[in-house]
Amino acid sequence: MGANQWEMSMTGMEQVIKRMAESPHKSEQIINNVLNTTGKQLVSKRMPIDIPVSKKSKRHARNSNPYNVKTTNLGLIIKPKGKSVDTGRPQPKTGFNYLKFPDLGIGTSSSKQPKNFMLKGLEKTVPEISIELLRGLEKNI
After folding, report:
1. pLDDT confidence of residue 109
2. What is the four-CA torsion angle of 5, 68, 105, 108, rounded to 10 degrees?
3. How far apart, in Å, are the Cα atoms of 131 and each of 75, 101, 123?
4. Is residue 3's pLDDT more than 50?
5. What is the CB-side half-sphere exposure of residue 141 using CA atoms within 13 A?
6. SS3 content of the chain, % helix, strand, coil (to 5)
7. Which residues contact 117 (CB under 8 A, 6 or more apart)?
8. For the stretch 93-113, what's the b/e string if a residue is b when 16 or more beta carbons lie within 10 angstroms of its beta carbon?
9. Per the confidence metrics, is the pTM higher than 0.85?
């Protein structure tokens, strides 16, 4: 099973790196705290904005808080949530399949060029997260 993986570039984060160097023993804990609170919230709110929505009248990922965001040491893991179908009988969890491998253009977009909505959402969210990291480091160091 494959997975999409993107990493935050350190470009433009010179101030964060400088603050981290001023107090290397505290900075890891501060960064983890900021990512666990503010970082998770920003990702959950900002990333779904770029998810495409069809014209069909149905539940769409953009409006469904589609991501599980977990923190790791100095990072975040973003995975799509499953979508439960309520038919009165037990069924397996199904998710928004196009969120699992967004760069493949799965679903009705399979013949079209992928929209890279997760990567675009991440690129929009990273500057906000870096500002919050800088604030957290300045406040606690």
Report:
1. 60
2. 170
3. 15, 29, 14
4. yes
5. 22
6. 50, 10, 40
7. 50, 51, 52, 102
8. eeebebbebbeebeeeeeeee
9. no
pLDDT of residue 1: 40
Distance CA 5, CA 109 (A): 21
Q: Please state, in angstroms and rounded to a whole number, the distance separating the CA atoms of residues 5 and 108.
A: 23
Per residue in 45-60, pLDDT (tens digit) is 888 888 878 788 887 7
How far apart are alpha carbons 17 and 137 in whole angstroms? Answer: 10
Q: What residues have CB less than 8 Å from 43, skipping those under 6 apart?
A: 67, 69, 76, 78, 122, 125, 129
Tokens of 55: 């014209």
The DSSP output letter for 38 is: I
CB-based burial, 7-39: b 16+ in 10 Å, e otherwise: eeeeeebeebeebbeeeeeebeebbbebbeebb
Average pLDDT over residues 34-41: 94
Q: Which two tokens stand for residue 114?
A: 């992928």
